[in-house]
Design a protein that fits this description.
The protein has 340 residues and is α/β, with parallel strands linked by helices. It has 11 helices and 15 strands. The chain folds into 2 domains: 150 residues, Medium-chain alcohol dehydrogenases, catalytic domain (Quinone Oxidoreductase, Chain A, domain 1), CATH 3.90.180.10; 158 residues, NAD(P)-binding Rossmann-like Domain (Rossmann fold, 3-Layer(aba) Sandwich), CATH 3.40.50.720.
Amino acid sequence: MRQIVITRSGGVEVLKLQEKPDPVPGRGQALIRVKASGINFADILARQGLYPDAPKMPCVVGYEVAGVVEAVGDDSVQNLVGKSALAMTRFGGYSDAVVVDAKQIFEKPDKLSFEEAAAIPVNYLTAYALLVVMGSLQADEAVLIHNAGGGVGLAALDIAKKIGARTYGTASPSKHEFLKARGLDHAIDYRTQDWLPVLKDLTNGRGVELVIDPLGGGHWKKSYKALRTTGRLGMFGISTASANGLKGKLRMLKAAVQTPFFHPFGLLNRNKGVFGLNLGHMWHEGEKVAGWVRVLMEGVQDGWVRPHVDKAFSFEQAGEAHTYIESRRNTGKVVLTPSR
């Protein structure tokens, strides 16, 4: 098999393509011949040496794949052989062959391409947990989606529209037309204006019931100010720390220093809530997560789950793919396709 290895922390030049023997599935496991691998911002941070959950380098990252089940470890999962599937991987997804537990494998809907299927697990599960499970977004409420043009942002927009909530999203101006066509009610340009007073003006000074924020640091304090009474802030990333070398470490330190402390008494008095989500820390909750996947698969069939793949890069172009995401050029998902 071929894999993209992070040889050491640094820029995209540390990504190397290597050949290794195919892995062998054990009991209850299956080998998937990968057609597409999803890229997530956690992968960027891992390459930069800023992601604490990443394996020790050299390592292969990647949380999600789509492909065809080629072999199984025992007869109990023989029914999977030959099926097109999507799967969640605990790293190792930047490979053209992966072995995963059968419970992490889900049949790919026929209406999705492999690239689109690889855009489902991380983005849509993250958005579903933020909006539905923990954020409890209701039809008569409003949500602010930061980085609305990203993979999680578009997934959150799909889910919020299904719920019937009013949607506000921060994004660069070049993405506004696309987002409005996808159903975003109000696009806010965060690059040339302060988004908070714009949001307050759009909501007649009230704010919104839910904010989902992957930015981190002092941005979380600002997002908290955007909450209406009974509002909730969902925190799920620290993308502002992204940078190579010493610059990245200094940014991470700055984000840590600027991170607000939400005291219980303050939350009580203001009738507001905060919560955090790290999907990579939910491997012990497989049954729960599988239930969310089933809802999303039904959403694919019903047409409200619409994964958008901005661009697919070959394994040889992995560095270009990372650069594309780091420069915030993508609208929606970016995937890797391992075919030679």
